[in-house]
Amino acid sequence: MDVLRFACQPGCTACCEQEGFVYLSEEDLLRIAAHLGLAAEAFEARYVYRTRRRMRLRKPPHSQCPFLERGGCRIHPVKPVQCRLFPFWPDLVEDRAAWRATAEHCPGIGKGPLIQIGTALEIAHEMRTAYPALYR
Q1: DSSP assignment, residue 127?
Q2: β-bridge partners, 1
Q3: How far apart are the first and last CA of the chain?
Q4: Whether residue 87 has a cis bond before it, omega within 30° of 0
Q5: Which of 9, 11, 38, 99 is in the most buried spot, having the most CB atoms within 10 Å?
């Protein structure tokens, strides 16, 4: 895999609807709390599940994310790094089969401009930096 193509498709929330967790960095937490007009502590008490090694958004019943609404993401301008970088996650850009499997539910994969694998790996490195507990 030397190059990839990806362009997020308008109105698509397919990535947000996949089974999994939305992990947060401390910076994500602060940015989202401010956007919602909440103190960080209030945001965390309401929306966050934290362990010693990582934190993630709590999952509401029948949804993968508390901020996913019919019209899209309620926190789109300040969404977590994990969401912003999708599909350029290390486990996807470093594994051709995983990239192809993700394309089955992501209509933006295979569309848009060519992205050099080196560029994709640089983007993926930001994910490793933001969430080091996920990539040990």
Answers
A1: H
A2: none
A3: 24
A4: yes
A5: 99
Six-digit token string for 103: 């394309």
pTM for this predicted structure:
0.90
Distance CA 75, CA 45 (A): 18
46: three-class secondary structure by DSSP = helix
Question: DSSP 3-state assignment of 92?
Answer: helix
Q: Name the 3-class secondary structure at 23.
A: strand
- Dist. CA 17–CA 48, nearest whole Å: 18
pLDDT tens, residue by residue, 74-121: 999 999 999 999 999 999 999 999 999 999 999 999 999 999 989 999
Beta-carbon contacts of 80 under 8 Å, excluding residues fewer than 6 positions away, are 22, 23, 24, 25, 28, 32, 57
